[in-house]
Prior knowledge:
Elements: H1 7-17, H2 20-26, E1 32-36, H3 37-47, E2 52-55, H4 62-73, E3 78-81, H5 85-99, E4 103-107, H6 111-119, H7 121-126, E5 131-136, H8 156-164, E6 166-169, H9 176-187, E7 196-201, H10 202-205, E8 208-213, H11 232-243, E9 247-251, H12 260-270, E10 272-276, E11 291-294, H13 301-309, E12 312-316, E13 336-341, H14 344-347, E14 353-357, H15 360-374, H16 384-405, E15 408-411, E16 416-419, H17 421-435, E17 438-441, H18 445-453, E18 462-464, H19 473-477, H20 480-483, E19 490-495, H21 496-500, H22 505-512, E20 516-522, H23 527-537, H24 551-556, E21 562-565, H25 570-582, E22 586-592, H26 615-625
Parallel strand pairs: 2-3, 2-4, 4-5, 5-7, 6-7, 9-10, 9-12, 10-11, 12-13, 13-14, 17-18, 17-19, 19-20, 20-22, 21-22
Antiparallel strand pairs: 1-8, 15-16
Amino acid sequence: MPGYAGAAARAAAIARAGGLDEALASGALQRDQDVPLAEALVLGLLRQGVHKYVGVFGHGSTAVGEALRIYEAAGLVRAFNVRSEIEASHVAAALRWQYGETAAVFTSIGPGALQALAASIAPASNGLGLYYLFGDETSQDEGYNMQQIPRQEQVCFLKAASAMGAAYSLLDPWALPSALKRGATTVFAADRAAPFYLFLPMNAQAAVLPSFNLEELPRRPSFQRLAPADDAPFVEAARMIAAAERVTLKAGNGARGVDPRLLDELLRRADAAYVHGPSAVGVLPGSHPRNMGVGGSKGSISGNAAMARAELAIVVGARAVCQWDSSGTAWASARSVIAINARPEDAAHYNRSLPLVGDAAVLVERLVQALRDAGVDKGSSPTRWYGECRERRAEWDALIAGRLAREKLYDSKLGREAMTQPAAIAVVAAFAREKGAVKYFDAGDVQANGFQLVEDETLGATFTETGASYMGFAASGILASALADSPSYPIAFTGDGSFMMGNQVIIDAVEYGLRGMVVVFDNRRMAAISSLQRAQYCVDYRTDDRAVVDYAAMASSVEGVLGVHGGYSVLELRAALEAAYAHTGLSVVHVPVYAGSDDEGGLGAYGDWNVGAWCERVQREKHRLGW
């Protein structure tokens, strides 16, 4: 086995000692080793706590595969081969997001690497750190390598990845320690973790590094939570809050670490309404009386009204994505913003803002203390603003209740009545709460209706990938529960279009013993885009199809997977969900749902969005507001 002499002995010594550090400290493993680059990479990632690898092997990753085989045999790592590099990226992202486990995605050179790179926009958009290990063209440039970008230039793939984020090419294998230092500060960053792309030329992977110093491999860094040293910004923030009659706090993904008790106190002392972004469900309990629900382009009656009427906005942990603040038009009455964010560029996004830069949990605590010190407690008794917000929340609740009461509508394509998508989603969401299942929402109409409907009492019960809105994320992502050390039962909420972009799970779930559920809400179209086309141009175009697909039969064609038809009523769907949940493996529930122009079939939209026919008006309003 050229280049791998001694690899099995090294792996065995590390396993017996309980880790690389322990093996080096005890002398069970000598510091200087003749080690191939691929093995040194596995050792380096092992030192950073990366034990799991997900991906697709190819001719551009055989040396990495051999290193993983040896170390998996010793019980030090696990490699999971799946059926798509896109799926691998989604699984690794979900593993970090839900379970906090950091994995590495491996691919070959060329199309596989590009597919994983495309899918990495999901973890990049949601602040999730993971490693990507891409096979790459050889460093000696002997001619075109199969599947390289066919240009007479160096490191073309590196250039593409560098546009997405931090990337490094190991053209010189001895640069591995430096590469892993950069990787660690990216993947484990305290402010906003992100993917790190490591390119491995095919001829470099098996190259032996003689007398390589294993102590040169960097450990996982431990970053402290940061906050401003000066009290002055918090004194000013308390003054701004005390002076404002109408305050709204909106939380994004970066608020997920904030103590709900402190958030409750901040809302009371500021007499603030609370609004959340689509991915921040459960940061504050859904039943909290100040929780106005989701706000933004899709938004809600109460959430959008709280944003539009606020004089002072407190923004916690958000990037101001277009749908999050209605393309800069949501804060129609605000005169100033208190912006809490770990990144200066995001904290300073709005004009007329007081940026508080650092860890959101620490900053909220400091802000609450400043309000205590100043004796600010505006919401200790009911106020006009609180009453106004509660009225709008009651209006929103009544709309939802009315839509859910209209269980079915006639669907012309089906030739019969079918459940509306909100009604069906509500049934599955209630079922998930009863069973303690974790909900994953896929992109599209299912996602939009889902984040308008779903309210959780605790964080971590729902994962909605709205950062990139990557179709297929949910059905692929739930496979993470088969790879996790302490798995929970997952349910993927997906449309028929998204499911067809991520249905490899029906095979990989069997391979890795996933117990979970995919619910396919089938309206035989891209309903989110159909409704957008109708709203903008009064007609939909090329967003539906005539194909009739039995997704339950498709799923059942894989031995070990249970396919269930969800029926056409709430009672039928409840029965189907119980049957699916009783299955010991993966279940797929096929639910035909209404699609059409009847407003009763959805939950509506309540904000602006800078797309298509609306652009001129929305841009004009954004410039008028001066944000």
